[in-house]
Amino acid sequence: FEIYVRPFPNVGGGQWQVSTAGGRQPLWTRTGKELFYVGSDGALLRVPVEASGATWNAGTPMKVLEGRYYTGSGSGRAYDVSPDGQRFLMIKAPGGDSTASPPSVIVVQHFDEELKRLVPTR
């Protein structure tokens, strides 16, 4: 798969390829001046973009992070980018396998009530 960009709502107004060697899970920055995506090797890439009126131009994809992170196997996105585009939230892949299932996370709701039940106060 490759990453393409189309104008909205006029999706018939053009189509521009952004990725150069495969890609999935695209995400725009809040400024709209960069597009992040996961490359075919599992690396996170960013592409600077310029839009002016009816013209649109994508720069060269640049590797941001190597593929040592869980990238998921289904639809959706397995990462997020901070509002300033400088930090990333990702799950580190166990053993470096970016296609392996991530470790489980246990969320305990009402922890204080459970603690009171297990350790009663005097």
Architecture overview:
This protein has 122 residues and is mainly beta. The protein has one domain (4-118). It contains one helix and nine strands; from the N terminus they run E-E-E-E-E-E-E-E-E-H. The strands form three sheets. Strands 3, 4, 5, 6 and 7 form a five-stranded antiparallel beta sheet that branches. The mean pLDDT is 83.
Keywords:
elongated, 32% strand, 122 residues, five-stranded antiparallel sheet, mainly beta
* Oligomeric state of this protein: single chain
Q: Uncertain spans, ≥5 residues at pLDDT below 50?
A: none
Number of DSSP E strands: 9
- Span of the ends, CA to CA: 63 Å
Q: From the alpha-carbon coordinates, what is the Rg to the nearest angstrom?
A: 20 Å
Largest sheet descriptor: 5 strands, antiparallel
Counted up, domains total 1
The shape, in one word, is elongated
Q: State mean pLDDT (0 to 100 scale).
A: 83
Structural class: mainly beta
The arrangement of helices and strands along the chain is EEEEEEEEEH
| Percentage of residues in DSSP E strands | 25-35%
Helix percent reads: under 10%
